[in-house]
Amino acid sequence: MRKALLAVLVILTTGAALNEVRLKHFDVERDGNAFVIVWETEVEDEVRLFEVFRKSGFDADFVPVGNSNGHGTNLEYRLTDDQVYKTSSDFIDYRLEVVYNNGVRQRLAEKKVNYTSTAIRRSWGSIKAMFQD
């Protein structure tokens, strides 16, 4: 009985250890009216997919932006968020999560970026132009 219990524990521990992701980097870059979420892994075991979420301002919940299937280490992932214009906040939080083949979900990274909508910038530019000589 003890040997069987020990064998089960070893199998469970080994299986859990196979679920691993280590990031090389996680960045959010501005691209015109959108943000591009970029990440790269140095270890990527048993990954089904990566999911990116956005939270703007003081919203209570993160909303899905998109996902990408796992494709291996040392390859860059890029996901574009072109729905940013719908937010009404000075900052946006992005979150990266991984979903493993066994269904386990893990939060990998979060990044906060400053955001001023292009509509606000254009309006401010128009106002300044009216008062310049």
Describe this structure in words.
Helix content is 23%, strand content 50%. The longest helix is centred in the N-terminal third of the chain and has 17 residues, at 2-18. It has helices at residues 2-18, 118-130, and strands at residues 20-31, 34-45, 47-56, 63-69, 76-81, 91-100, 105-114. Strand 3 and strand 4 form a beta hairpin. It has 133 residues and is an alpha+beta fold. Strands 4-3-6-7 form a four-stranded antiparallel β-sheet, with no helix packed on it. Strands 1-2-5 form a three-stranded antiparallel β-sheet. The chain has a single domain, classed as Immunoglobulin-like (Sandwich).
Features:
alpha+beta; three-stranded antiparallel sheet; Immunoglobulin-like; four-stranded antiparallel sheet
Secondary-structure element pattern, one letter each: HEEEEEEEH
The number of helical segments is 2
CA(first)-CA(last) distance? 90 Å
State the CATH superfamily name.
Immunoglobulins
pLDDT average, as an integer? 80
Low-pLDDT regions = 7-16, 120-125
CATH architecture: Sandwich
Report the portion of residues in β strands: over 45%
Q: What fold name goes in the CATH topology slot?
A: Immunoglobulin-like
For the record, the count of structural domains works out to 1
Name the helicity range. 10-25%
Radius of gyration over all CA atoms, rounded:
21 Å
Structural class: alpha+beta
Query: What would the principal axes of the Cα set say about the shape?
Result: elongated
Oligomeric form: single chain
Q: How is the biggest beta sheet arranged? A: 4 strands, antiparallel
Would you state the CATH class? Mainly Beta
Strands of the biggest beta sheet: in what spatial order?
Answer: 4-3-6-7
